[in-house]
Amino acid sequence: EGRETRLRVVLRVRPLTCTETRRGDQQVVHSLGDGAVHVSAARHDATFGFSAVFDAGASQEAVFEGSGMRQLVELAMDGFSCTVFAFGQTGSGKTYTLMGPLAQSYSQPASPALLGLMQRSFTCLLEQSRSRGSDLALSASYLEIYNEQIRDLLSPGPPCALPLRWSKTRGFYVENQLSVEFESLEAIVSLLLQGSQRRRTSAHALNRHSSRSHALLTIHVRNRAVSAHPAPGEGWGAQGSERGPTWVLQAGACPSKQGTLCFVDLAGSERVKETGSSGELSLEANSINRSLLALGHCISLLAKPRGKRTHIPYRDSKLTRLLARSLGGSGITLMVACISPSSRCLSETLSTLHYASRARRVTTRP
């Protein structure tokens, strides 16, 4: 707590698709073990190091255990602000890593072996909650950033734009966002699938189910044990002011822990020429790439030593505003970089690897 902590960055390399194999694409990414990966192609020969590398044969369970996701869940329960986000080229396996198969629904759940980081984290969270015997209140909120508009994925009716505010105490936050309490695995999985089905997706040349928005699912973990009527001499007390009583924590009281666990599924970077996008799809791609560029710029500046950092332009996009605490503030962050091993995707793969390498140098103070 309070010490500088580096962002944990892991890499996942998806298998070659049937289309890529039929086309004769070469595999240019090879895992070397011990968190290292090598890219070998014409005029390109480079090695990158990460906290962990998961190759095409890695199971969903191996990614969950090897990425440090279980520890992140435990830290959220201890009151820390924790974030995990997946990024990479469109079609590189981000949504599959976080959620599992796209075809799953509440009536047709995915095979347990194929479940992603989200569902496995929910199970771990509820198991930990029961084993600790603590009186925890769990709630979830789910939003998407589509064409620089923030939309609630859980509120009834058609999605409408929500304002993004800033305050000295809360930092950047979304006003009027719906938060739904849950107590069981079935309830939170239902909220996840409900929100995901409302998220904007489209098909293009590189991905039949391309996410056209950035999605953020946040689990709020709050301790309900704090009493509104503490024993005499300890707990919460009221101090008078012009606006009425202000509740303050008195000496000897035990403050409640309020942690968060946020899953960020970033829309994939893409080149319009490769995807064949036009019209609305092209506009969406431009919006996605602009916000990812702003995110990359912030990461590049944050990777510099604290004494040499200049102003960090979080306000350049709504995505960077919402991730400000996770990237350079008081949060604990896990980044999952997803790449394709195909020679056809070499340029985007190298871009993702350089992006992830810079992120490894970013530090926060949880």
Automatic annotation (TrEMBL):
<comment type="similarity">
    <text>Belongs to the TRAFAC class myosin-kinesin ATPase superfamily. Kinesin family.</text>
</comment>
<keyword id="KW-0505">Motor protein</keyword>
<keyword id="KW-0547">Nucleotide-binding</keyword>
<feature type="binding site">
    <location>
        <begin position="88"/>
        <end position="95"/>
    </location>
    <ligand>
        <name>ATP</name>
    </ligand>
</feature>
<keyword id="KW-0493">Microtubule</keyword>
<dbReference type="GO" id="GO:0007052">
    <property type="term" value="P:mitotic spindle organization"/>
</dbReference>
<dbReference type="Pfam" id="PF00225">
    <property type="entry name" value="Kinesin"/>
</dbReference>
<dbReference type="InterPro" id="IPR027417">
    <property type="entry name" value="P-loop_NTPase"/>
</dbReference>
<dbReference type="InterPro" id="IPR036961">
    <property type="entry name" value="Kinesin_motor_dom_sf"/>
</dbReference>
<dbReference type="GO" id="GO:0008017">
    <property type="term" value="F:microtubule binding"/>
</dbReference>
<feature type="domain" description="Kinesin motor">
    <location>
        <begin position="6"/>
        <end position="362"/>
    </location>
</feature>
<keyword id="KW-0067">ATP-binding</keyword>
<dbReference type="InterPro" id="IPR019821">
    <property type="entry name" value="Kinesin_motor_CS"/>
</dbReference>
<dbReference type="InterPro" id="IPR001752">
    <property type="entry name" value="Kinesin_motor_dom"/>
</dbReference>
<dbReference type="GO" id="GO:0005874">
    <property type="term" value="C:microtubule"/>
</dbReference>
<keyword id="KW-0206">Cytoskeleton</keyword>
<dbReference type="GO" id="GO:0005524">
    <property type="term" value="F:ATP binding"/>
</dbReference>
<keyword id="KW-0963">Cytoplasm</keyword>
<dbReference type="GO" id="GO:0003777">
    <property type="term" value="F:microtubule motor activity"/>
</dbReference>
<protein>
    <recommendedName>
        <fullName>Kinesin-like protein</fullName>
    </recommendedName>
</protein>
<dbReference type="GO" id="GO:0051231">
    <property type="term" value="P:spindle elongation"/>
</dbReference>
<dbReference type="InterPro" id="IPR027640">
    <property type="entry name" value="Kinesin-like_fam"/>
</dbReference>
<dbReference type="GO" id="GO:0005875">
    <property type="term" value="C:microtubule associated complex"/>
</dbReference>
<dbReference type="GO" id="GO:0007018">
    <property type="term" value="P:microtubule-based movement"/>
</dbReference>
